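This part of the workshop introduces the protein records we will be handling. A record pairs a protein's sequence with a compact description of its fold. Backbone structure tokens are a discrete shorthand for how the chain folds in space. The question running through the whole workshop is how a given chain folds. The record below serves as our worked example for the rest of this section.
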Amino acid sequence: HTRAHMEVDLLKKKAGGMRKRRKESDLEEGDVSGETEQATSILKINLHFIQMTLDGLNYVRRVVLGLRETVAYGRNPFG
């Protein structure tokens, strides 16, 4: 058993203990849904961000196409 192995084992033990302790305290407070809610809100934020990015890209595409039309036909597509 090398020193690195022992350190990894120690970290695993620590993490396991922390997880167990957190589970117990969660159950005491009856707050098991907290983590799920947090994960859901993070997911929602990510989806919102992706949607904003897509909207932004669509807008840029529209503007570029509009400018191209303006240059090609000399008319204002935003009018």
The two ends are 75 Å apart (CA to CA). The chain has two helices and no strands. Residues 32-79 form one domain.
